[in-house]
Write a structure and sequence with these properties.
Helix content is 39%, strand content 15%. By secondary structure, the protein is α/β, with parallel strands linked by helices. The structure holds ligand V47. Ligand V47 binds next to β8, β9 and α14.
């Protein structure tokens, strides 16, 4: 790809993409070199330094990140993030045929962002049996690539509830990737069952766990955690659990919940801590920025909703700052299908999956459908001009839709 940036009154930058050597060789035929003579005027000169670093393939710093979040030059930000993305994923955009299982809404912690958690004796509290979970997954006759399991912090379940759940799923669906339990749940199991995090993870892997989702990261700031997530683990504990998982060879994701009380500094601090852990372990697969939904939460009416431009800037910044993360996910459930499609031109290369039904964000007012069909996801990606790729939970390619 060739993109020229005309810096008004300064000079013209030329973005050079290429053969995308990081992507599997067997797929090189669909990458090709795209020639695009594109002139983007850089009206705010503050982004010139950022552009220079991105074109040179060097790392941006916190000041650059502030400039991106403060800039109005959305076209340039998008083009720079796209340039970075094309170097690792080329024209590919990933999705998966998955099902989310929210096994219980009973939770010992009351986060101020949550509309989903209930006390164990509250009306509407539920916990799925292992048979119910298997029954729900069995409805997907076409076959699942990934099961995504996340639930509340239930004080009364035994540890073998979780291992039986994983064993049951593994036996019934041998090829599926089991992405299960956030670092928050793992830390809670360690405390409740008096085991080390290392031991909890080893036993879960033994029962069938493949990867870990990125939930529970919220904002990696103890100030914000104290204010909104009291009772949850510290930011360092969340990071430490992922470090332990990576050392054991478990690939994990990382999220960031934004659009509530956080500042730009908090967002950048969050990304800095993730980038630094990834430099150390290389264990993260995907970063997922999550947009806060306030309905039915104590924050309703107290915070605004991020604008479309803000959402796109956060995606682009994630791609540009997290230069060591292979994938950036635009999560359609929280982002809407429309903004998700645009986010694919702002550095995202993954849109999660078909989901089936999602309860956490829908309890908080999400208006997106409960799930999407595979065909719908393929069409959604194709319309953006990219190549849809069906993947499993470890990014093994299942099918390419040219
Ligand atoms: O950790 C809670 C967030 C997360 C609300 O790893 C809320 O691939 C919005 O982690 N509005 C769970 N968000 C979901 C999650 C996730 C989703 C998709 C993909 C992956 C992945 C992970 O949802 C929680 C919390 O941060 N959340 N309440 C709310 N009112």
């Amino acid at each position: 790809m060739t993109v020229n940036f005309k810096l008004t009154g300064l000079r013209t930058y030329r973005l050079q993409g290429g053969s995308h050597s990081v992507v599997r060789r067997t797929m090189s035929d669909i990458h090709g070199t795209v020639e695009k003579g594109l002139h983007i005027p850089v009206t705010d000169r503050t982004l010139a330094g950022v552009a220079e670093k991105v074109l040179a393939g060097s790392r941006i710093d916190d000041r650059d990140a502030h400039r991106i979040l403060e800039s109005g030059n959305i076209h340039l930000i998008g083009a720079l993030a796209e340039h970075r993305k094309q170097r690792s994923s080329g024209r590919l955009v990933y999705f998966t045929v998955n099902k989310q299982i929210n096994y219980t809404n009973v939770c010992s912690v009351r986060c101020k962002v949550c509309a989903y958690a209930k006390g164990r004796r509250a009306k509407g509290a539920y916990t799925m049996s292992v048979d119910e979970i298997i029954g729900e997954l069995s409805q997907y006759r076409e076959g699942l690539d990934e099961v995504h399991i996340v639930g509340g912090l239930h004080p009364d379940l035994r540890f073998d509830y979780y291992t039986s759940m994983l064993r049951g799923i593994r036996t019934r669906f041998p090829g599926v990737t089991i992405k299960a339990f956030t670092a928050t749940e793992i830390g809670y199991f360690a405390g409740l069952y008096k085991m080390s995090v290392d031991r909890v993870l080893k036993e879960l892997v033994d029962a069938g766990l493949d990867t870990m989702p990125g939930g529970g990261a919220e904002v990696l700031s103890d100030g914000i955690r104290g204010e909104l997530f009291s009772g949850k683990e510290s930011k360092d504990r969340w990071l430490e659990t992922h470090r332990t998982a990576h050392v054991l060879g478990i690939k994990t994701n990382a999220t960031m919940l934004y659009g509530h009380i956080e500042t730009d500094d908090d967002i950048i601090g969050h990304l800095r801590q993730l980038r630094s852990l990834q430099d150390e372990t290389a264990g993260f697969l995907t970063f997922v920025p999550l947009i806060f939904h306030p309905e039915n939460t104590p924050l309703r009416g107290r915070v605004g909703t991020p604008t479309g431009i803000r959402k796109l800037k956060v995606v682009a910044l994630s791609r540009l700052y997290l230069d060591n993360f292979p994938h950036i996910k635009a999560y359609w459930v929280m982002m809407s299908e429309a903004v998700t499609q645009i986010a694919l031109h702002f550095g995202a290369d993954d849109i999660d999956g078909t989901i089936g039904s999602e309860k956490v964000t829908h309890a908080a007012g999400a208006r997106t459908p409960a799930g999407l069909t595979k065909e719908h996801m393929v069409a959604m990606i194709k319309e953006t001009g990219y190549v849809p790729v069906r993947r499993d939970g470890r990014y093994k390619v299942i099918e390419v839709y040219e």
